[in-house]
């Protein structure tokens, strides 16, 4: 019986360690979402740090088995709204999805088209596509984060993706002067994949990881 408290303390320590590791893994995604709200790298960094601190302090309230990403994104957005209210600012901002660096020229072109057309969407559409399409959150989780009905989230995602597809089609029909017509669909396969990956070659592994992540991000953006 005397060993029971020590055992429980050890289990609790492991749980908090796992929580901290999971929180650390989410930081790049939190940073991306923070930039979409603030449009300021320094402000985004401060917002992420504030979010991580609040999440750690509130870790006891997190329900194991639920979506940690949705939970932390909600903390981040609430922190952002609190900052806006304190500063008396009434605007909401958004910027392009933060995607990995491209690993081949064709992927740069197709993702470049999405990036170029992205500002044509409303800030609300941008955020909802990012949360649902890129971050993989459910409509319900996104609605909780954005503090709007689920139907509103679905409408923003559908209309935003329709707009992106329409703009991509228009761009494909009218190519730049002096250039050959080309397909701009982000779903089209590139002409070649990155070099054959050698498990012992970390650079090639990283190249393939980035290439796959980039294609997935572009594909999710237009649905």
TrEMBL record:
InterPro entries referenced in this protein's UniProt entry, alphabetically: RNA_pol_sigma-70-like (IPR039425), RNA_pol_sigma-70_dom (IPR014284), RNA_pol_sigma70_r2 (IPR007627), RNA_pol_sigma70_r4_t2 (IPR013249), RNA_pol_sigma_r2 (IPR013325), RNA_pol_sigma_r3/r4-like (IPR013324), WH-like_DNA-bd_sf (IPR036388)
Keyword Transcription: yes
CDD domains (UniProt xref): Sigma70_r4
Signal peptide boundaries: none
Matches recorded under Gene3D superfamilies: 1.10.1740.10, Winged helix-like DNA-binding domain superfamily/Winged helix DNA-binding domain
NCBIfam families assigned to the protein according to its UniProt record, in alphabetical order: sigma70-ECF
Residue intervals of the RNA polymerase sigma-70 region domain: 26-88
A molecular function (GO) term: sigma factor activity
Domain RNA polymerase sigma factor 70 region 4 type: 114-164
Name assigned to this protein: RNA polymerase subunit sigma-24
Example GO biological process: DNA-templated transcription initiation
Highest taxon of the lineage: Bacteria
Keywords: Plasmid, Sigma factor, Transcription, Transcription regulation
Similarity-based family: Belongs to the sigma-70 factor family. ECF subfamily.
